[in-house]
Amino acid sequence: MENILAGLCGTSPEDPLPVWVHGSVGHCFNQLTLNVIPHVILAVVSACFLGTPRSCSRVPCRPGWGCRITSSFMLAGLFLADTIPATIFQQELGPVYLELLASGTGALTWLTHGLALLMLFRSIHSSTRGPAALALLALLPLPSLIITLVWYYLRGTAWSPAHPAASSRFAILCLQLASLLVYVIGCLFPTPGRQDFLSIDRSWQQDQLVSEPGIPVPDQQRVAEDGESWLSRFFYIWMNPLMKYGYQWKLNQPQDVYVLPRKLQAARVCDRFYSCWQKKAALHQVEEETVSLTSPIIAGGDGSSDAPDSLHRAQEAVQLFSVLHAAFGLRFYSLGLLKLAGNLLGFSGPLLLNLLVNFMESRQEPLSHGVLYALGLFAGSFLGALLRNQFSYEVNKVTLMVRAAVISAIYRKALRVSSTSLTRFTVGEIVNFMSTDTSRLINFCLSFHEVWSLPFQFAITLYLLYQQVGVAFLGGLALTLLLVPINKVIANRIMMNNKEMLKHKDTRVKLMTEFLCGIRVIKFYAWEKHLSTRINACRAKELEKLRAIKYLDAVCVYLWAALPVVVSIAIFITYVLLGHQLTATKVFTALALVGMLILPLNSFPWVLNGTLEAKVSLDRIQRFLELVDQDLEAYYALDSPSGTAAAMEMQCAAFSWAPDEEESTRQPFSTGTLQLHVENLSVRKGMLLGVVGKVGSGKSSLLAAITGELIKQGGRVYVSDLEQGFGLATQEPWIQFTTVRENILFGREYDARLYEEVVEACALSEDLNILPAGDQTEVGENGVTLSGGQKARIALARAVYQEKELYLLDDPLAAVDADVANHLMRKCILGVLKHKTRILCTHRTEFLEKADALLLIDNGTIVKTGTPADILPLVEAFPKFKDTDKRQKDKAPVEQGQEEAIETEADESTQNVLIHKEEEKKEGAVAFQVYKAYWMSVGSCLALSILFSLLLMQASRNISDWWLSYWISSISQTANTSVMVCSASPPSPELLLFSVVGLVSPIQALDTTAVPSNGSLDVNFYLIVYGSIAGANSLFTILRAFLFAYGTIRAATVIHSRLLQRALKATVTFFDTTPTGRILNRFSSDLYCVDDSLPFILNIFLANMYGLLGMLVIITYGLPWIGLVLLPLAALYFSIQRYYRRTSRELKRLYSITLSPIYTHFSETLSGLSTIRAMRATQRFELENQLRLEQNQRCLFASNTAMQWLDIRLQMIGVAVVTAIAGIAIIQHQKQLGNPGLVGLALSYALSVTNLLSGLISSFTLTETMMVSVERTEEYTTDIPTEPQDKLVQVAADWPSQGLVEFQHVVLAYRVGLPNALDGVSFTVYPGEKVGIVGRTGSGKSTLFLALFRMLELKSGRILLDGVDSQLVGLEELRSRLAIIPQDPFLFSGSIRENLDPQGKRTDAELLEVLEQCHLRDAVTQMGGLDSELGERGKSLSLGQRQLVCLARALLTQAKVLCIDEATASVDQKTDQLLQQTIRQRFADKTVLTIAHRLNTILDSDRVLVMQAGRVAELDSPTCLSQKDGSLFQRLLHSGQQ
Question: What is the spatial distance between Cα 1385 and Cα 65, in angstroms, rounded to a whole number?
Fold first, then answer.
């Protein structure tokens, strides 16, 4: 190196680069460092901008650009000219090669720079100054120019004719300086004002819209990454605007995120994937030599095949994996090269560290070596960082492509597959393919490169270790390998416990669900205590398993944490015992290598697991993609069999729901057994064909056979206008999750006249007026916000609006009442559709008189066809008028109920909106309160001891490393005593600058004790100390692991019990206004987070934090000067992470917001598959799916790239730290100050700084995310309204002994701001009296009971029971002394005994007696006695029986006051009479209040209370009221008897 420099400069090898010669800067130093190096930097940066894309729009350009470009090319020419005098007059101007090097570099640089400026001038930058970096870097060569000019001037050779070379040289230099000044002036031209900028922005946006045809890119959206320069790509400068946006809280919707780069756009990716699929399929077809052209995904029904088995084979052949491989393989595998290079550069760190420490120890090597090593460290870590970062970025891009391809393939397949084969999978399973299985495949893409690179890293590390310490490395290796089986055992145990724990968790959540569903009943019966004990019992079991998991986990953590220390100790001990001498170099390199060894070992099991999971998922998706497709061409005959112009014909056709081959193997299934045979059926164009038959006779199957959803086993089916599709209204109406209007339009253009006509014909006008936003009202998932009748009518309207030729209507009249049914029949089926062909299946035969013909189907065959007059008498065994009447009577209250439901829904939805707002507000960072709450749950003492044990662990680890370095320094001291003694003379002033007293003193103290003889003694002493420190470290580690596990479990216990206590005491209003799902979420996912995920992440976060602190302490102790570099870097780090965390949080939120629509849309598609296909809307749905996917991919891409953006910046911080340490070390070494041991230590720590920094940010972000769960549980433990728990009066044990109930001016509202539900109600019920309560819906009947049981607190007035004010009695006492039979019979899962008597106070005899009285004894004995299980919510009993169980409960309470809220629907007449009779017998002497819906049940009560609008309207005996003219009761009676 020295010799090369000396040759170039013409100097002596001892001092090749003199900085100061004869009072001025050395010419060679000036040319090389101040001229060549700045030029090279400028050239590299300029080259990065050569790829800038051109802008098509002409933008007003700034005059400065012309100056800059001209002066750049001038400078290039001048530098080229400068080479001429240098070569002609060689002696005069200095060493020729140096001059040529300098001028050549300059010429090349300015040429590149000029071209780069030209590119920028033609791009969108032309209106600005361009990148500031370029302008600044262009000034770097300036000092060198000036120095050279001054040098010539001082030598006096500037203008002398005696030196023509020097003069020409001087002239060229002056011109160069002038050109540079022109360049600077060009830079300083003023930029245009703000107004121009807007126009620029606009033109820029137009520019960016070079996008795919077919994918609309809206305005103001940047395309990510495309057309950016290299520099911008490496450092993600193009992400900066987005990061800034996120930092300012401006990322609110998915549209704010960049559009995907062209290569990643869903449409392009899918096209590529499908073309690969077709190629594969074609290949297979050639191999199979079948005629079929169908491929599992892309069969739009092209190609037909007679042999079903050949078709099957052809489909099975195409493997998803091979297609993915063909489509994305090349790009994906080539990334392996990046990975390889990155890994190899990763090894350069420890090796160069080794050389550097050697250099510091030997003191014999020339300085240039040290500089080279330091530069090498810089270059290695810099390039390694770039490559690793680009690798993960590129892999992320490939995974996005795979994700898009797989998701759309699954969606596409679902649209094409035949319904019969789709039944093998549930909707849930198929949606799972899209979510879980796809994400597993993607994880495999991430871990695939690990599979080969980890063993490779491992092998290289071992080889390097072997180079360092020879055979001794085997000692460490043996230990490591020993740990693998131990870990496997622990992992298996963890898995087992986890399964158990999840089982208990499921039971607990199920109980919780039941508890929330029946919360009213539980409160009526005052059973909260019993349920909470059951839930707590489950929770205890769950926590027991959790404890086992956490402790096993602690052992695992301990083993991994202790491993590096133990392994290195083992290696060093073996090495020393083999009789070798330890040196600083060896120890530090070995330590760094052991650190690198642990990582592959640690992650390999995970990688393998991921690979296996991906294999399973791939197979599952493959199975789905191999299902048989609908083959419409094979299904339908192309021409009418009889040649007539029929709309639809079938001849000798046989259909089944199950394919032939499965028929034999299947157990008789409800769908599997039905076969449909149609001998001959021809439907004339424009006729109305009615299809009748009893339930399950095959009416719907006939329609399915027409649309091609069944399997045809023979015969011919012909439908005219097949491409156009059918107007299909299915039996269970399928409603999309969008507005009512979108549902009806179903992708067609909005035509106001037609739309109005359809809405009117389907009797929807009134409903649309009721809905909060008319036809723009959002309909919930599956149309939950609509009543059954509304759903059916909307589905019908959708079919009608499509204007098809053939209409298949499957019982659209079932869910509506008689009036509406009449309207639909008149206005719609015989009105708007009168010229179309209609096939109508229905049970409501009274409407079929107007049909042209009827089919009577029974058991899958057409029994008879004919006119309505022939067939209707066969169907109806009962006169039909009574039927319609009864229906109408039944329907009226239901419809009314539906409207009420709509109103309450609307009410609830506004409520929800409010609550949602509350939830949304908690954006941003997690409040300090939450951390405090978690700290308190752990317990302050415990929390402090955990932190302290962490501190001890980190400290002991760092001390053990420091001890090593100390030991090594002392060894090198004994070797170099002579050197040391010389340098121990009084230090020079510069020396003091670079030292801290503490660093020098121990070294000087050691000088005196350098006696070579006791070397072995020393080694033993050092080893013993090192071993004991390591032992202490190991002890602290295990202490910390167990303390941590214990603390987090304690927190989980505390948080759950607080949450449950609070939820049990909450008011009924709270449960009414909060969706059950939201409460359950707190008990399931949030608690799971607190139990499991939070501790895991928190652990990592704390470890990272302490690790970083330890590292900083060690580095600053080893090299105090590094503090100067660390402070600005720390500030930088802080600002970067703050920037990143905010944006990343927003992006993740956007990702999850855009994810659910994909799944919702998918499950919606699956449930409405037959409709979508029949109406021929598959293409549109595919496109919709693609758009939703694109939205989601945009957010995912941005979120992934934000991580890379952060990563590269942190890597650069790491590079800066490493380089700074190396630099300072060399300077210290020059001043004879360096302690090689400490420098080595500092450097080995610094090499891991990047991982720590990024680990710290990601774990902190995750911890914050997890803390949200604590926040949500906290919110429920502090913010929800609870029932008053105080009790002011002690009542007698038998209170109320008489049963006197008095209401005095009771006023009550459900919630603040709602009208009063009871408005001054006063009445008295005397002991033993039977009172019936009647009134229209919403008149306040049920509210009376709520007030009596204090479910709601009164606004004013009071309720007395036996003269005692109920508000003064404790809630539990009050509720347990009253009996109620609620409207919805609530049973929880458990035995019958538990349901009747949860507290277990009664004997079996008593229970059986009560069951006997309720006519349930036989049913119970049949089920298996009192201990037989009831199943979830009492599934194993019929509704009527459940009602009777509730009666039995009431009988058991033996209360003096019984409230009955009569259930209308669930009980048939006979049971009803039994119930009434039992109540009369058993409650003869007790007060009974009955809310009646059927008036005949209360005609024999003592008095009737008629409610109206929250007031008592009438109260008298039923006979008086019924005879009193104009009384409300009389009116109710009449309306009931019509």
Answer: 83
- 764 three-class SS: coil
- Work out the angle at residue 1308's Cα, subtended by the Cα atoms of residues 1458 and 1378, and round it to the nearest 5 degrees: 15
Find how far residue 1360's CA is from the centre of its chain. 55
Sheet with 646-656: list strands edge to edge. 711-719, 646-656, 675-684, 861-866, 853-858, 688-692, 837-841, 806-810, 727-729
Question: Distance between CA 698 and CA 856 in Å, rounded?
Answer: 10
Q: CA-CA distance, 504 to 541, in Å (whole number)?
A: 7
Beta-carbon contacts of residue 702 (< 8 Å; ≥ 6 apart)? 676, 678, 691, 839, 841, 855, 857
1138 near 387, Cβ under 8 Å? no
* Closest to 474 (Cα-Cα) out of 577, 347, 370, 371: 577
Q: What's the CA angle centered on 216, arms 215 and 217, to 5 degrees?
A: 110
Strands 1503-1508 and 1356-1361: unpaired
Dump pLDDT digits (tens) for 848-896.
888 999 998 888 888 888 888 888 888 764 334 334 344 333 433 334 3
- The CA distance from 465 to 1246, in Å, is 20
pLDDT tens-digit readout, 624-664: 998 888 888 888 888 777 767 788 888 888 988 876 554 44
Give the three-class secondary structure for 522: helix
Q: Which residues contact 1435 (CB under 8 A, 6 or more apart)?
A: none
Query: What is the distance between the alpha carbons of residues 405 and 413, in angstroms, rounded to a whole number?
Result: 12
Query: What does the block give as tokens for 338?
Result: 């990046």
Convert 195-215 to b/e letters by CB count within 10 Å (16 or more is b): eeeeebeebbbebbeebeeeb
How far is Cα 998 from Cα 989, in angstroms, rounded to an integer?
17
Peptide bond into 1518 cis (omega under 30): no
Residue with the bigger pLDDT between 1007 and 665: it is 665
Return the number of other C-beta atoms located less than 10 Å from residue 1411's C-beta: 22
- Compute the half-sphere exposure of residue 126: CA atoms within 13 Å on the CB side of its CA: 23
> CA-CA distance, 1453 to 586, in Å (whole number)?
84
- d(C-alpha 395, C-alpha 389), whole Å: 10
pTM: 0.71
Strand partners, 728: 808
C-alpha 508/C-alpha 531 separation (Å) is 11
Which of 48, 184, 69, 195 is CA-nearest to residue 126?
Answer: 69
At how many degrees (to 10) do helices 1122-1167 and 1094-1118 cross?
A: 160
To the nearest 10 degrees (0 to 180), the angle between helices 164-188 and 142-155 is 150
pLDDT of residue 746: 92
Q: Could you tell me the pLDDT band of residue 916, with boundaries at 50, 70 and 90? A: very low
The pair of three-digit structure tokens given for residue 98, joined into one six-digit string: 């140096």
3-state secondary structure of 1445: helix
| Cβ-Cβ contacts under 8 Å for 975 (sequence gap 6 or more) | none
Dihedral sign (CA 610, 616, 620, 621):
positive
| Residue whose entry in the numeric block shows the structure tokens 């013409």 | 10
Q: Which residue has the tokens 């002033």?
A: 989
C-alpha distance from residue 502 to each of 488, 496, 506, 550, 1058 (Å): 21, 10, 6, 14, 21
Q: Please, which contacts does 902-909 make with residues 24 or more away whose CB atoms are closer than 8 Å?
A: 902/770, 902/771, 902/785, 902/786, 902/787, 905/785, 906/771, 906/772, 906/785, 908/1073, 909/772, 909/785
Strand partners, 20: 25
Measured distance CA(467)–CA(349) in Å, rounded: 16
Apex 1307 CA angle, 1302 and 1311, nearest 5: 130
> Tens digit of pLDDT for each residue in 1223-1245?
888 888 888 776 777 888 888 88
